[in-house]
Amino acid sequence: MTTRRLFLSGLAGAPGILRARAKRPPNILFFLTDDQRWDAAGFMGNQILRTPVADRLANSGVVFTNSFVTTSICMTSRASIMTGLYARAHGVELFTTSLTAEQFRNSFPGMLRSAGYRTGYVGKWGIGAEKPEEKRFDYFQAFRGQGELLVKSGSRTISSARLLAEQTREFLRGCKKDQPFCMTVGYNSPHAQDNAPWQYLYEPAHAEWYKDAVIPVPETANPAHWPKFPQSIQRSELRRRWAPRFATAELFQDSIRAYFRLITEIDESMGEIMTELARLGLHEDTVVIFTSDNGYYFGEYGFADKWLMHEPSIRVPLFIADLRAPHSARRAPQMALNIDIAPTILDLAGIPAPASMQGRSLVPLLRGDSPPWRRDWFYEHRYRHNGWIPATEGVRTGRWKYTRYIDTDPVFEEMFDLERDKAEMRNLAGDPSQAAQLSRLRARWQTWVKNLESWRPDAAWREPPFDPQLES
């Protein structure tokens, strides 16, 4: 029986795993994937993709069905996840920029370690060109940059996901029941191996997975959409990366099947980790969190990768499963953000988050409470890749999305009514009948910019008050 099956059968057959425990700070096991869009998981309704370990965990916890990143690129999003801050506040907008010593002290791993947690990190760190963080964790086996999808482990060539499972099991074997731990497993998959001849490198033994699957093509992935963008966007990195991945119907199918194989490799890795957690008797005190650092285009608008503000790029899967106490699966519709991860983890550990953190703890939603919640949030992506990636800013409410392509001249804008146009096919920014709503969203964008630029690390953060007219 595989380790994944052992974990699944053990979880299904041992109600003790979910019984309430004595009050102590919980262990935190945080799974962070790379480029996994919101609907690329079984627990998010994907009928083709097989993710039984993640599905079982999600079904013992809370799934956040509207989870987003505030910047859709790895280094910036991961810095936001660690610090609970928007990009304008933490300033990590280049691959070479690291967290400062003060920022790390106020990050969730820094604060947990100061409070007595044993902390670990494996896989893709992705924040800064160097690895000064290895002295900031009790166990640190991260790599620089993107890393490789296939790696050497002794005489074997295995998936990076399998290697991370081996390293995480080693970390867990060094843990003690009387000291809580926080372990982050930073997968670099299913991110493509950029610039390789074939960019989705899975273990050869997994080639049979999904070989007969027929992947639905998104309705916006057709030639009618991308010419609607300015020439600078048509000629951007989004289009260059589209060609080797999605340029033909056959290539589209091959690419997404391989992308799915990488996600199932992650799921098997999670199964190995969860089995070791149970074998060591640590599962009963653990909270499991799963999310991704950004989404991924499946050819929508003729694009590949992420970066822009469309739903495939900014929306990610997220669940939190508290294995200490029984509860049935729930789905939370509130808008959750990557900046919410840090204050949530601190809240779970009983540690007050810094007042300057811009995210919100999701713990009240885990309890089933109905606190006043955000009605909108700000999006920003200012890494330009020497002019090859469009810089964007915008605002998303529950119903509306407004995006400014800030380097185009004149400024190119998009406005979508997500209530009536979930696929974002009709740009209303040029519709005279929607001029008033466009004006309101432009003003809201300006308000967010001013509010974020006035942020100070020694002051309490306050979101700008929401104007109900924005949802009209």
Question: Topology as H/E string?
Answer: HEHEHHHHEEEEHEHHHEEEHEEHHEEEEH
* Oligomeric state of the chains in view: single chain
Q: Unreliable stretches, pLDDT < 50, 5 or more residues?
A: 1-22
The rounded Rg comes to: 21 Å
State the secondary-structure class: alpha/beta
- What is the count of helical runs? 14
- Strand order in the largest sheet: 4-3-7-1-8-11-2-12
User: What does the largest sheet look like?
Assistant: 8 strands, mixed
The rounded distance between the terminal residues' Cα atoms is 55 Å
Roughly what fraction of the amino acids lie in strands? 15-25%
Average pLDDT, to the nearest integer?
Answer: 93
Helicity level: 25-40%
DSSP, total strands: 16
Overall shape: it is globular
Protein architecture, described:
Helix content is 29%, strand content 19%. The protein is α/β, with parallel strands linked by helices and 472 residues long. Helix 1 crosses helix 10 and helix 7 runs parallel beside helix 10.
Characteristic terms for this protein:
eight-stranded mixed sheet; four-stranded antiparallel sheet; 29% helix; alpha/beta; 472 residues
What layout of secondary structure does this protein have?
Layout: H1 3-13, E1 27-33, H2 52-58, E2 62-68, H3 74-83, H4 87-90, H5 101-105, H6 108-114, E3 118-124, E4 139-143, E5 150-153, E6 156-159, H7 160-173, E7 181-186, H8 231-234, H9 237-246, H10 249-279, E8 286-292, E9 297-298, E10 304-305, H11 311-314, E11 318-322, E12 330-337, H12 341-348, H13 363-366, E13 376-381, E14 392-397, E15 400-405, E16 412-417, H14 435-453
Helix pairs in contact: 1-10, 7-10
